[in-house]
Amino acid sequence: MLSEFDLIKQYFDRPAGSGPQRAVLGIGDDCALLAATSGMQTAISSDMLVEGRHFFAGEDPRRLGHKSLAVNLSDLAAMGARPVGFTLALALPAAERDWLHGFSSGLFALADAHDCQLIGGDTTKGPLNICITVFGAVAPGRALRRDAAQPGDDIWISGTLGDARLALAGLRGEVALDAAAQAAAATRMHQPTPRVALGVALAEQGLARAAIDISDGLVGDLGHILARSGVGATLDVDALPAGPVLARQEQRLRRAFSAAGGDDYELCFTADAAQRERIVAAGAACGTAVTRIGRIEALAGLRLVDGAGAPLDLALAGFDHFA
Ligand code: ADP
Ligand code: MG
């Protein structure tokens, strides 16, 4: 049986030189020590994943390690902050070596790709629960805040939407998908890609005003920008970039799952229309597609229109119970 100390040592406290070294002092003391980068602000965010609520019991541990950090890095991306480090608070029902190996492998693969160091945490016995806190760096005045959208701004989205929600619909039997389509869509649900390079480019080059990462569906999350900024918007539902699997589904499903799916972890951001070319170039430089999907307006509320500009009366509350 692994003791708590052995578990941390074997699976989380890596030998010096085997991962990013961002902290003055990492795992092993009562606190980690981070040197403040002169003049920079620290962006901090926590996200908790609870078994049965955010993932199914028996979920593959490697995918879980990836996703636990990915959803946190996505929050740094949405502020335009560069990842520095993270802590991991873990409640585990049992110390199983296979599970710990898979989980830490998935976690560190993503952490290393983003030069982000695991600097501490807490480990306890209990129902499976994973809480990560990330720390990032952003220059003063550059963070992409939810309260910064202005009337006249374009609204943009990164990547594609809806495949994660489609995978869930397939699992629930709400939609019939063949095995290949289910597997392709499920990749989006289990392995979200945090848009860190794009978020950092938008902030550092001063291209975007407001931003948010899409975890609960575009319409709901864009609503947070509108509320915090005291503005409204018109959204072209037919301009939304559906994921490759969703794109092959009927229009009703395409519209519903791209507008209000969930688990997308794309960036929705607003920007002055004068920045269009530079934003497209920044997306290309990061290898992340960017699509213009609407316009911020002074009139409060969110208006959904189709490709011809005609109002779409989609019952958004009904999206979750798609028949
Ligand atoms: P304390 O008793 O001071 O809370 P612990 O014994 O819980 O410290 O942890 C010992 C060290 O291991 C600390 O530096 C802590 O940050 C680190 N640690 C504990 N659990 C984890 C974990 N799951 N991932 C990374 N570091 C961890
Ligand atoms: Mg202590």
From TrEMBL:
Binding site for Mg(2+) 3: D30, D75, D213
Its EC number(s): 2.7.4.16
Catalysed conversion reaction: thiamine phosphate + ATP = thiamine diphosphate + ADP
Binding residues for Mg(2+) 5: D216
GO MF terms, alphabetically ordered: ATP binding; magnesium ion binding; thiamine-phosphate kinase activity
Amino acids binding ATP: G121, D122, R146, S215
UniProt name for this protein: Thiamine-monophosphate kinase
Organism, scientific name: Pseudoduganella armeniaca
